[in-house]
Design brief:
Layout lengths: L15 E4 L2 E4 L11 H18 L5 H11 L1 E3 L5 E3 L2 E6 L8 E5 L5 E5 L1 H4 L5 E8 L5 E8 L7 E5 L5 E6 L7 E3 L5 E7 L14 E7 L8 E4 L8 E6 L5 E7 L6 E7 L7 E6 L1 H4 L3 E5 L5 E5 L7 E5 L10 E4 L7 E7 L8 E8 L2 E8 L16 E7 L6 E8 L2 E9 L4 E10 L6 E9 L5 E9 L9 E4 L14 H8 L3 E5 L9 H5 L6 H17 L8 E6 L1 H12 L6 E5 L18 H4 L5 H10 L13 E7 L8 H13 L6 E6 L9 H19 L6 H5 L9 H7 L8
Parallel strand pairs: 33-34, 33-35, 35-36, 36-37, 37-38
Antiparallel strand pairs: 1-2, 3-30, 4-5, 5-6, 6-7, 8-9, 9-10, 10-11, 12-13, 13-14, 14-15, 16-17, 17-18, 18-19, 20-21, 21-22, 22-23, 24-25, 25-26, 27-28, 28-29, 29-30, 31-32, 32-34
Keywords: Hydrolase, Protease, Serine protease
Enzyme class: hydrolase
Pfam families: Peptidase_S9, Peptidase_S9_N
């Protein structure tokens, strides 16, 4: 029997709060202060423990090599077309971060922004870019890991010279150019010196900026103190005469829509055309060339529909449904192609039926379907884009579990669909069998589950890695996922549970697992684990779970409720202390999703499943790997520290409880080498505790093939992937 690890000592404090008559203990409250010397000493000791334990993983290098083989490089998302040029991001095999390229009308490429030249350490990344309508200028946002500031600079797209900026405090912004490229609207936060001490709320404002003027002169056109944590989205009409703003209290909350005529762009007068408190739905507006509004909404349509309305008559009763809801295929996104050269304007719509994407063009005038685009396999379509202000072509990305993103171009003039560019992997694509199944949850609801196995699946229980998310209405899809490809290449099974709280079956699926019903997400996940065991696909000794961010909450909560189901648990950037999550990172913007501890009833919801508060001393817990950035600006790093200390104190098992901290990274984006290193560590940890070896016989049976990218593989997968909390 392996001796239980000797963990760094963590004193248990005596903090017990009386919250609405409930005694809530918080023995590791002191770990929240990352600047305290005793906290730094304790986390440093945890770092040493992890590195010493990792040094004993005999197959760490083999896992790292396998991850390198299946990691992708190249162009992974569609271009942004403006005027005669296109802007696209590329990450070469040797790059830590993406570069921004410009493709001129003659097809020649040139590098506009290379973060490696700005910061050779690799910690500065290209976050977002917004070209002007004419393609002559581009607003660029770079972000530095662990730093809260995020500036916008404006570049001349022909020379790369900086023509404006920096505009500060624009993290998580939206930006919309006015025609002519001389001004734009953007979202930025109120300067810290204007806030009360200790106020960590977002306090975003929509501002108008003219090129060449200092940011201090930017006019605030929208936003006030009554909405301190609102998210804003901006859309300017093709003629530049109208501005629409969406305003929501959280990343997946119902939203208002405001519209203003831009008689004076510096002083638009807004009219609320959609009241989110009335609709309790999400409504995304687009301006049509004839002046009407196109509304993409889940109002009275949980799987989404597309409506048209006069912008002056926007009550829901006046909305005319253009593309109706398909209850079996949630709506993902759409784009309007209305170039004057087209015989008729086209609406291109992407849906997901049982997790598999379809793309259908519709007549924009009457909503008549015009056929369906032939996709290369049973995968996922994302990021529909077209030229602005009017386009005839659309670009989108396609991927599946073994196909890294490929970029396709659709031409509405002749109906052609062509592959344009895409990413590649360093080695060869593995042979993976994909299928979707359904299992029954404890309340009788059927839950979708994706299973990915070696093509020549060996009999008997296999080491299995179960993945999930279950928050903010974000759906799980068969995306290209190097971690999954590496796991299956080694002979394991990778399973994705589409638990309630996600968006796999539309907004009603999200509603069924949020707020007072969040516990369903967790029970759904445990039911998936139990189903995998009961059907003989794995055993508790061979089953590991893995989740990131909201998925980290899912897997830690599931394991504290059913520790007997798992051999190992990996949680990256998780939420664990649900009583105080609002005090860390962006947690105060997620109360629409989870609830708030400041309300007695909602506190009870949170305490029901909060992982940190449901740890029981003397329980033989699975092995835990709690991974996170040293500074996490989204979820906050205290979740990892407090959960680790509580588990180390409580567990009666000899299986390790480890904390893996990474400096110089962010919540969900890191330099490429650090992302690969984290992936390899996750695989080595999960493999060690489930018995999966990257060099074993099963791995050789599922070896990658030289022709892995050819048509045969596309036919095989034909029978069978956003960034939030």
């Amino acid at each position: 029997m392996v001796a239980r690890l000797s963990y760094p000592a963590a004193r248990r404090g005596d903090v017990v709060e009386n919250l609405f008559g409930l005694s809530v203990a918080d023995p590791y409250r002191w770990l929240e202060d990352g600047h305290d010397g005793s906290v730094r000493d304790w986390t440093s000791a945890q770092d040493r423990l992890f590195h010493a334990y990792r040094a004993r993983w005999p197959e760490a290098r083999s896992w790292a090599s396998l991850v390198d083989e299946v990691s992708s490089f190249g162009v992974s998302e569609p271009p942004t077309a403006r005027g005669p040029v296109r802007f696209l991001a590329e990450q070469r095999r040797e790059d830590e971060q993406r570069r921004l390229l410009v493709v001129d009308a003659d097809g020649s490429r040139r590098v506009l922004v290379d973060p490696a030249k700005i910061d050779p350490s690799g910690h500065t990344g290209l976050y977002a870019w917004w070209p002007s309508r004419e393609g002559e200028r581009v607003a660029v946002q770079l972000e530095v890991a662990e730093q809260p500031g995020s500036d916008i600079i404006v570049l001349d797209a022909r020379t790369g010279e900086t023509v404006d900026g920096p505009l500060p405090r624009a993290r998580n912004t939206s930006l919309a150019w006015l025609p002519g490229g001389e001004a734009f609207y953007y979202v930025s936060r109120v300067p810290a010196e204007q806030l009360a001490p200790g106020d960590t709320r977002l306090h975003r404002r929509v501002r108008w900026h003219r090129i060449g003027t200092p940011w201090e002169a930017d006019t605030v056109v929208f936003g006030d103190e009554d909405a301190p944590d609102h998210y804003y989205g901006l859309t300017v009409s093709a003629d530049g005469r109208s501005l629409a703003i969406t305003a929501m209290a959280g990343p997946a909350a119902p939203n208002h829509v405001y519209v203003a005529e831009l008689i004076d762009p510096r002083a638009p007068r807004f009219v609320r055309v959609v009241d989110g408190r009335t609709t309790r739905a999400r409504v995304l507006p687009r301006f049509l060339a004839n002046g009407d509004l196109l509304l993409v909404t889940d109002y009275q349509a949980p799987c989404g529909r597309i409506c048209v309305t006069d912008r002056h008559d926007t009550y829901p009763a006046a909305w005319r449904t253009l593309v109706p809801e398909d209850p079996e295929a949630p709506l993902d996104e759409c784009v309007v192609l209305d170039d004057p050269a087209l015989a008729r304007p086209v609406l291109l719509v992407a849906r997901a039926r049982h997790g598999i994407s379809t793309v259908t063009p519709y007549d924009l005038a009457d909503g008549r379907p015009l056929g369906r685009l032939p996709l290369p396999g049973a995968g996922v379509v994302s990021s529909l884009r077209t030229n602005l202000p009017h386009g005839r072509q659309a670009w989108f990305g396609y991927c599946d579990l073994t196909t890294p993103p490929v970029i396709y171009r659709y031409d509405a003039a002749d109906g052609t669909l062509e592959r344009e560019t895409g990413a590649a992997i360093s080695g060869h694509a593995p042979r993976i069998h994909s299928r979707g199944v359904r299992y029954r949850a404890s309340d009788g609801t059927e839950i979708p589950l994706f299973l990915f196995t070696p093509e020549e699946e060996p009999p008997g229980p296999r080491p299995t890695l179960l993945y999930g998310y279950g928050s903010f209405g974000m759906p799980m899809r068969p995306w290209f996922f190097p971690l999954a490809a590496a796991w299956v290449s080694a002979g394991g099974t990778f399973a994705v549970a589409c638990v309630r709280g996600g968006g796999e079956a539309g907004e009603h699926w999200h509603e069924a697992g949020r707020g007072p019903r969040k516990h369903r997400s967790i029970s759904d996940f445990n039911d998936a684990a139990a189903w995998l065991v009961e059907t003989g696909r794995t055993t508790p000794a061979r089953l590991a779970s893995y989740g990131v961010s909201g998925g980290g909450l899912l897997v830690t909560a599931a394991a504290t409720q059913r520790p007997d189901l798992y051999a190992a648990v990996v949680a990256a950037g998780p939420l664990c202390d649900m009583v105080r999550y609002e005090r860390f990172g962006l947690g105060h913007t997620w109360t629409e999703e989870f609830g708030t501890a400041s309300h007695p009833e909602q506190l009870r919801w949170l305490l029901r499943y909060s992982p940190y508060h449901n740890i029981t001393p003397g329980t033989p817990y699975p092995a835990f790997l709690l991974a996170g950035a040293v500074t996490d600006l989204q979820t906050g790093e205290a979740h990892v520290s407090k959960m680790c200390a509580a588990l180390q104190h409580a567990t009666s098992s000899d299986r390790p409880i480890l904390m893996r901290r990474e400096p110089g990274t962010a919540h969900a984006a890191s330099p490429a080498s650090k992302e690969r290193a984290l992936t390899a560590d996750i695989l080595a940890f999960a493999g060690k505790h489930t018995g999966l070896s990257p060099g074993g016989p099963a791995s050789r049976r599922t070896a990658v093939t030289p022709n892995g990218r050819g048509p045969r593989r596309l036919r095989r997968v034909a029978r069978g992937r956003r960034r939030s909390g």
